[in-house]
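To close the chapter, one final illustration. This time we ask the reader to focus less on the individual chains and more on the assembly as a whole: which components sit near each other, and how the overall shape emerges from the parts.
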Amino acid sequence: MRPAELRGVSVLAAWLLLAGCAATSPAPATAPLPSWQDSAARTRILGFVAAVTDASSPGWAAPADRIAVFDHDGTLIVEKPTLVQEEFLYARVRALAPEHPDWQQQDPFRAVLAGDQAWLEARGRRAMGPLMDAAQADLSQQAFDAEVEAFLAAARDPRFGRPYTQLVYQPMLELIDLLHANAFRVFIVTGGGTEFVREMAEPVYDVPRERVIGSTMKATLRDVDGRPEVWRQPGIRDLNVGRFKALNISSRIGRRPILAVGNSDGDLEMLRFAGDGPGTLAIVLHHDDAEREYVYDDDARRLRVVAAERGWLTVSIAGDFRQVYP
Amino acid sequence: MRPAELRGVSVLAAWLLLAGCAATSPAPATAPLPSWQDSAARTRILGFVAAVTDASSPGWAAPADRIAVFDHDGTLIVEKPTLVQEEFLYARVRALAPEHPDWQQQDPFRAVLAGDQAWLEARGRRAMGPLMDAAQADLSQQAFDAEVEAFLAAARDPRFGRPYTQLVYQPMLELIDLLHANAFRVFIVTGGGTEFVREMAEPVYDVPRERVIGSTMKATLRDVDGRPEVWRQPGIRDLNVGRFKALNISSRIGRRPILAVGNSDGDLEMLRFAGDGPGTLAIVLHHDDAEREYVYDDDARRLRVVAAERGWLTVSIAGDFRQVYP
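The assembled structure is written out below.
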């Protein structure tokens, strides 16, 4: 066993022992998942981790096999009213607009510059292609990373007045910590852009940059001052949604994960692939808290049916999250 | 600092101290890189690792940035007279031949079944497509992995009479160990098939399966007993050679490596991308030992010119490897 695992096992074992000895007392300060309600969901997650790390349990998994995959938007971070990456796109378009006077009359740029959210919502993803080509391509990967970093530092969500990096779910951060402490390797598997999400991976989620599996744009190499730089090109190379999430997990990780967390129909194949057999856990986050977050499930209809049929764990923000944000 | 790094630093520091105190004595048993000759190449590698892990050195790199990339065929494992994966392909074709009587008359299958190596060499990579489609597709990823594992356990190299997994370069295994002990994350970046090389990654190189970046075939999901399985399809999805090695390193790892090791022109862009700036090291393995390995550099002409121009470290199997195989 690795040191990290030993540490995790002993913390969890100590807590379970304490919890068992003093079931009516409040949980000790070191209890895992403190921002979770003491609900069936939390109990099931802790039971899963306890089984995975108990060599005498039928649910035990060797440390090498402890792979967990998390969707990003709506699973780790608030995705309403607009995806964070869309806000970034819009900010880039506004910043680049003075160099492109034609954009004032040309959709989808006009819609972005005029704040015509209704037009953008009606077009949905079809509006995104030209915006991505204009705002996320024809610059070096290094320059793009710096743009994302600057945006994340400066931008604020209008409803909550917080940086987007603080509109992540504290209970999920604690779940990632618990998994890391128990020798899991955690991957973020997102339909969003790999390089956009990657800028949040280490500072916000403590997930190494190389453990982000997302959508990618085309790229080429260009010599800059005698050294090759990755140069972003227009056009999608890989769209990491639906079945591609499962296929890319296989291709990139080379193991079937034992824990998967998602929130929309785009995560269904990933959850089926990773979290639907013995010794695995599939978790579906349900957005049902209008006061502290948002209420919606229009993009999770199929998912909720399958989750109920298969006995997956549905986590309710209203019912299972004691605290929502850090 | 992580425990692994502390351990590595202290071992290396202790050894450097010992080496400094007793320069004329034989190296102690715990000296790093014991299968390397005590040559300039070894000294340069140890100096690089010492600088990277010394916080007061201009060459220091934070643990998160300690990324090393190794080519596979010819860099970690013998690639002559035939790539190991080609031997696997041929073995699969021979095993499947009874179900395909037409293959006896149909090239490239005929050439494989007749052992017509001259024909296969003359065709080169162009012969590989139909063989790969026939022998590496239309089965589950899980079944493919099992086929590779069985092949690696049973097959023997005719010249050395050893399993291919023991025709890896002991000095490179020691370099990987040294890097791991100093908190590097080591990736194998190969033109070979990701899933083929992956079967060697953990048992042979101690590199986690998810740190193999290689070429891939197409794939789809297929329900088997009610659970989705990855099903390999005919056709190349990604060919990881030349500039794609650099692009895929960027896309997959999200950092520019500081150490890169290769041996052929197909590694040139990777070496330029990763190992050609301040604080980095590019290593080129030169095959110049007919007695213990092979002598060739027909596929490394450009590489050897650039390596000399740029002052990269050329490692000679004849001159720098005290011992070649485990």
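The interface with chain A takes residues 3, 64, 141, 185, 194-195, 198, 202, 208-212, 216, 219-221, 227-228, 230, 243, 246-247, 250-255, 269, 272-273, 276-277 of chain B (CB under 8 Å). The CA atoms of residues 63 and 154 of chain B lie 39 Å apart. With these observations in hand, you are ready for the problems at the end of the chapter.
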